[in-house]
Please model this.
Amino acid sequence: MDLSSKLRRKTDTHKGDYGHVLIVGGSSGLTGAVCLAGRSCLKSGAGLVTAGVPESLNTIFETKLTEVMTLCLPCERGCLSQSAFPLLSKFIEKIDVLVLGPGASLSKTTQVLMRKIISQINKPMVIDADAITALSFDLSILDKRKAKDIVLTPHLGEFSRLIKKDKQVIKKKRKELVKNFSIRYNLSLVLKGHRTLISSANKLIENKTGNPGMATAGMGDVLSGIIAAFIAQGFNAHEAAKTAVYLHGLAADLAVKDKTENCLIASDVIDYLPKAFKAFYKKRYQG
Model:
């Protein structure tokens, strides 16, 4: 993995050179997911990040987020409404990457919105969390989609819903199943967990960074933000996924030395991303 050519900044530069990411999600009780994804995205080098969130909850996001902008979207009972699609599709014209699903809820109207975005929007996208569940009800959308670069980031339970197989069956054949899925739908698949797998076409990688302290809420949201940031800066889906997974785990490994596995939380990983970047650069250029 060579970060140097795409992540090292030029002297004469501005925020527009590093991409604009739109994160669509959030719902009552689940506002933290979007905030974690937004923070990790900026911390990983994205030039601009906007959170597309339910308008009834906007004050919460405005309070919790400083550098991330917000886009107020139509909602129903604190969840994104399918009626938000026209506004979203217009706004999406000026962004570079989409993150779908963090904290979005399982509301039926939100699920309709997620599926419509996946099928009709032609932008690179990271599909996570509740957007994966929405997708699991109709995988044919992936065959009809317009976007070429897609990264799916399921954990074991979400992958089980996608392929309609028991978790224990997946554990026994996870490399085969992950590879087959990524080839069948021509996308990048990140199966999160111990030794996270990253598969794109005929490329399959098993990540070796990370630790048991990462088994806590919000870690996946942080990862989605990092992946999107790398795509925004010019990586293709596979490059972004494998690099993000590695650095996500490395940041957790550095953080756990101070925090311990029991006390590690998702925001700690964001805080240790700078150290992970430094360690990675040092390994790259001195190792």
Remarks:
- The longest strand covers residues 48-54.
